[in-house]
């Protein structure tokens, strides 16, 4: 195992930095609980008695969300966004890959008036027609 | 403020928050909906507004979860997993926007069919409601066994029902000794965040960490912008062909009558049935996607509404997971004895406020999805780190558990998250089973220990 370069961990399907996620959790939990406890101290002076807990909860949640914002500003996402555009050749390869014969598919669409009209309206009727016939 | 105004306001808030959450791939419904619904309930919101909030939230989330699914091939949440194959086919041939439009339109159509159908069906079932309420303990236990059998872990989930029930009751006893009251929010928050918590524990373990280590950030492939309409957004009922409308409506109707099965399972089932009846890649994929996203909406609505309106006790996977707080949010709502939306709202309230929530969600999420899907995805991917999202949920959970039981509440939540999360991740004992075990645990132990 080469352990030197593996600095990310995957939690719930996305990559995070271990230290960043720890700091973020501590930050949010501290803010939320502090907000709630502060609310329990402050609100008895200004609010109706049976609303104190609810208002405090709201304050706790509000400060938790503020902490989330801070965490979002402090820690940038660890993701690569790759924009992929498929060229007509690639589309043909993909169709081949999916074991679909473009001409058969085009034929089927030609015979189906509803689908043909829909694809024409969307400007995507070229997809199955093959190379050289790209009008959109 | 009048109830109607509060409902409208909360529906707007729910629609906006969950439109955004839908965009964030991989956000689990239970972990997101339970804390937010709890907050709304505990703040003393009128029951009508709670329901409007919930309906708006689920519709909005299921419309925007189509965005990462269509544009990046990453499921927006677990419900979107069965849609991936067809969405990927359309994305690869360069028409992800068509996939998106079909999904979103199917979802909207199905949602508006599902609410009245499931309400009517709930009325039929309500005749048995007293029977159900009196024997809630037995029902939860039997249901736990059935759900366990269908969970990923199957036999191990059945074998572990009793030990887990005992563990939860002991924790509850400990909490009662310290606080003089029973806890329940802390328990189901623990169950809800279990899987996320398990990942974190793996990360902290020097022996288990290897499986989670990555040498570089995760890659997302985003399809290019293709916009074939400008300035307006298309009428959802014109996006679908007549045949797609008919299939989606039929599937929505049928799936609204099934409330005890897994929504993901139902979605796959109806999707496969549609695909088998349709020829041609383009037509097959677009038709299946409309039907499947429709079924994700209709099963969700039916599984929430039917148990809620007919019995008031959570008897479906959705009612036990994402909708749990509508049934049980002590001290405001309890399901044993039944004192929740079931007893507080009439069928007409459910229909009116449910429709209100859904219309609001539609007005927010639909134009948003149609016009800003790609821009919003890029923005979220580039600006909202996963660290911040995990932090937010841990913060919410901490404050809610503390609200219910101070430090004891937090300890109970993390104890349950530890055990539940590991059982879930390693042994395949899903959250649904764990929720059922929690609900049935006092009855089970009363029968055995006395």
UniProtKB/TrEMBL annotation, chain A:
Q: Which domain of life is it from?
A: Bacteria
Instruction: Kindly list the residue ranges recorded as spanning the membrane.
Output: 21-39, 51-75
Keyword Transmembrane helix recorded: yes
What keyword terms does UniProt attach to this protein?
A: Membrane, Transmembrane, Transmembrane helix
Q: What is this protein called?
A: Uncharacterized protein
Native organism = Kroppenstedtia guangzhouensis
Q: What is the lineage of its organism?
A: Bacteria, Bacillati, Bacillota, Bacilli, Bacillales
Automatic annotation (TrEMBL), chain B:
Q: Which residues cross the membrane?
A: 6-24, 36-60, 66-84, 104-125, 131-150, 155-176, 182-204, 308-330, 350-372, 384-403, 409-427
Key word Metal-binding present: no
Task: Give the signal peptide range.
Answer: none
Key words of the record: Membrane, Transmembrane, Transmembrane helix
- Record's Pfam families? TctA (PF01970)
**Coiled-coil region(s):** none
Answer whether the UniProt record assigns the keyword Coiled coil to this protein.
no
At the top level of its lineage, which domain of life is listed? Bacteria
DUF112 domain residues = 8-425
The name of this protein is: DUF112 domain-containing protein
